[in-house]
Specification:
By secondary structure, this protein is of the alpha/beta class. Helices cover 36% and strands 19% of the residues. Bound molecules: S-adenosylmethionine (SAM).
Length: 297
């Protein structure tokens, strides 16, 4: 059954009153779908009894989480819903969009004020605008991050805000071994499923080796990352050894198997925003987070 949603001009396949599909195909996000299907719970605060996702959300909102209160929010690239569960606590309505089949596993998909849409967000045609557009961990994984950033701003009201981040380009740019060595090597020769099996089996020893390398090289994250592309959050997040292993598996898969990965430099994003009549309200250049709004004509 085809259906409209007041926020967009597109026609969607209606699965239920709060679940709509524009793209049946996962397209380039197919590995994200697998990732969130098999590792959904790892970053969900309510399941793990921690507040890491809440704290990160608050950081993304420049410590002003109250800004979400009673708002209509568009969340782009929601994954398993680590942020959806908090956005919908505050929001009047939270519309969460993801291209991958992660939408079927979103932890908050049955919440009354949540609407889930399976769609490439760049295909959505704006109709009624949102108070807040939120997009975290997504833009570098789209084919054209700059166009994606501009697209986010099509969905926001004149007096609303867009909050987004984009991963930082390493100092040596795409010469980082992650890009010229590890990713092409692993992606070409090892299927996602096999690499996941390998990680599940060997993660303890891989983390051990990584930490030894790091110690030898004066605690340099950069050098240890060059030797071994395993994501390690020890001393970064306060997680048990068990959870550190789970996060390492999830984020290593995320880091290696994303089809597109175009991290950016902060200054470049500032220039793009300034050249497109977008006002920067807040910017954290260390993790490249922005709060922006449309410039009034
Ligand atoms: C690294 S995950 C981040 C998920 C979540 N925001 C988080 O921070 O945990 C990136 C997500 O963006 C989604 N994504 C990528 N391109 C997209 C697009 N064009 N439209 C909608 N979702 C997209 C992927 O399917 C994936 O679930």
């Amino acid at each position: 059954m085809y259906s409209e949603i007041k926020f967009f001009k597109n026609y969607f396949t209606k699965i239920s009153d709060n679940f709509f599909i524009l793209d049946n195909d996962d397209s380039y996000s197919v590995n994200f779908g697998k990732q969130w299907r098999d590792h959904r719970d790892i970053q969900i605060d309510s399941i793990n009894k921690f507040s890491l996702s809440y704290d990160y959300l608050n950081k993304m909102l420049f410590s002003n989480i109250e800004i979400l209160k009673n708002k209509e929010i568009l969340e782009i690239g929601s994954g398993a819903g680590r942020f959806t569960e908090h956005l919908c606590q505050y929001a009047d309505k939270c519309v969460s969009v993801d291209l991958s089949s992660s939408v079927f596993y979103n932890i908050s998909k049955n919440k009354k004020n949540v609407v889930i849409i399976k769609s490439d967000f760049t295909k959505l045609i704006s109709n009624k605008k949102f108070d807040i557009v939120f997009c975290r961990g997504v833009l570098q994984h789209t084919p054209d991050p700059i166009q994606s950033i501009l697209k986010l701003h099509e969905f926001v009201k004149e007096d609303g805000y867009v909050f987004f981040d984009i991963y930082k380009l390493p100092k040596i740019g795409y010469l980082h071994p992650k890009y010229i060595l590890w990713r092409p090597l692993i992606k070409t020769f090892v299927k996602y499923e096999n690499f996941e099996k390998f990680l599940r089996k060997r993660i303890k020893i891989l983390l051990k080796i990584k930490r030894i390398i790091r110690k030898i090289f004066f605690n340099s994250k950069f050098i240890s990352d060059c030797f071994l592309p395993i994501w390690d959050y020890k001393n970064y997040y306060n997680l048990s050894d068990y959870n550190l292993e789970k996060w390492a598996i999830l984020d290593t898969l995320d880091g290696i198997y994303a089809k597109y990965d175009y991290p950016q430099r902060n200054n470049k994003i500032i220039n793009i925003l300034q050249n497109n009549s977008i006002e920067i309200i807040n910017n954290d250049k260390n993790i490249i987070i922005f709060q922006t709004k449309l410039k009034k004509n």
